[in-house]
Amino acid sequence: MLLTSAALLWVWSDEVTLDDRFTTARKIVLFLFRPQRQFAGSYQAFTKLLQRWTDRLIECLKVALRERIRRDLPDCWLILGFIMFGVDGSRADLPRTRSHELAYSLLRHPRKSRKGRKLRKRLKKLKHKALSRKVTSPQLWLTTMFHVGSGLPWDWRIGPADSSERAHMLAMLSTLPPGALIAADAGFVGYEYLKAILDSGRQLLLRVGSNVRLLKKLGYYAHEQEKTVYLWPDRKASQQCPPLVLRLVIGDNGKHPIFLVTSVLSEKRLTDRQVVELYARRWGIELFYRSLKQTFQRRKLHSASAKNAELELQWSMVGLWAMGLYALWQLQKERLPSRRLSFAKVLRAFRRMMRDYLHPSEPGRSLCDQLRKAVIDSYHRQNKTSRDYPRKKQEAPPGPPRILTASAAQIQRAQALRFELSQKG
User: Fold this and answer.
1) For residue 344, with 0-12 CB atoms within 10 Å meaning exposed, 13-18 middle and 19 or more buried, which class applies?
2) Does 125 reside within a domain?
3) Phi, then psi, of 109 in degrees rounded to 5
């Protein structure tokens, strides 16, 4: 309990250095709990304790916080009858130290390895040394499974900057409730990954682009409707793997059409309009990353050691999750929706209480009182013409997927595979 409390206060603190944050956290822990034994007399001792216990403590906290979301935020649990989750990845910058470069820089790959050869070809094309230094700077990759209804994380995985976010997603799949709906962008396309989601009893909602080939009119493999499509790469077909049956929905985000596929085939269960609405709710994970990296100031971590950097990011995720959950519980008493929560005001409320822990709070200035007021303003900003200037990446929208009519050979193979599967069943 002491170590967990100190770690949370450590990441909540607004001191400049990690050492000063620990000093502040330790003072508050000693004041609150008055332990009989000496507790982590130095920052080095504190980090050694975290390295030993973080994995077990984080897993226990994840289980407890998930249960609190389910129990304390019942109004946020379902969206249109689905327990909906979004998944996406982001990078966190690291100081350029030898420890980080050996653990997380792309240059850690041997020259003769596939990734090493690919990286050096890319560096040769860069004209400026500053760009090559930016490409090889050490970074951590964070893939987050995000509970859309509450706007809070559910699980995450951390690795080097070249980690596979799709592999991270599969590692988190077992933590989701049965029947959950997973919404993801076009970066999570892949037959093996989508099949793993469907085989686990979960549903999917995915944006697709020009890098995806879909089939239609595959005969009597499934009960076909007008919007029925199949994901069935040639390589998987030759391996006798079954096609994935999906529904194609075309929406519009105001600028260009978006192409979505979902495993929920019945329009009575989920209409096209609701599919587009659910995918729009996935944007909440981008807002969470903004809160983590800008409001919580974790765009670049402070730890000089590779082991400590992962600890810093792990506890930062738990700290932000715990703050947000407690604040949402207070907002629910005021009957305010979760989307009104302001992480900036929540963070200021916690830090104000940490600075004044020795003094009794004034009437109406307790932590609960401040959290009930931690909502974004209702002012609607009309003019956003400057929001893309000057550093926002101007990415071209993904093109439409390639939709082909199944050939006679593909129809015959699908029917033979269906007959074989029915015989085994």
Assistant:
1) middle
2) yes
3) -75, 135
Threshold 0.85, pTM exceeds: yes
> Quick one: CA dihedral 247, 339, 10, 136, positive or negative?
positive
Q: How many domains does the chain have?
A: 1
In a domain, 107, yes or no: yes
Structure tokens at 68: 């609190």
- Among residues 29, 50, 33, the alpha carbon closest in space to that of 313 is found at 50
Residue 106 lies in a domain: yes
Q: How many residues does the chain have?
A: 425
Rounded CA gap, 315 and 321, in Å? 10
pLDDT, tens digit, for every residue of 176-231? 999 999 999 988 989 999 999 999 999 999 999 988 999 998 876 667 788 899 99
- Give the chain's residues under pLDDT 50: 131, 389-391
- HEC string of the chain? CHHHHHHHHHHHCCCCCHHHHHHHHHHHHHHHHCCCCCCCCCHHHHHHHHHHHHHHHHHHHHHHHHHHHHHHCHHHHCECCECEEEEEEEEEECCCCHHHHHHHCHHHCCCCCHHHHHHHHHHHHCCCHHHHHHHCCCEEEEEEEEECCCCEEEEEEEEECCCCHHHHHHHHHHHCCCCCEEEECHHHCCHHHHHHHHHCCCEEEEEECCCCEEEECCCCCCCCCCCEEEECCHHHHHCCCCCEEEEEEEEECCCCEEEEEECCCCCCCCCHHHHHHHHHHCCHHHHHHHHHHHHCCCCECCCCCHHHHHHHHHHHHHHHHHHHHHHHHHHHHCCCCHHHECHHHHHHHHHHHHHCCCCCCCCCCCHHHHHHCCECCCCCCCCCCCCCCCCCCCCCCCCCCEEEECCHHHHHHHHHHHHHHHHHC
- The type of residue at 45 is A
For tokens 């504190």, the residue is 46
The range of the structural domain enclosing residue 114 comes to 96-137
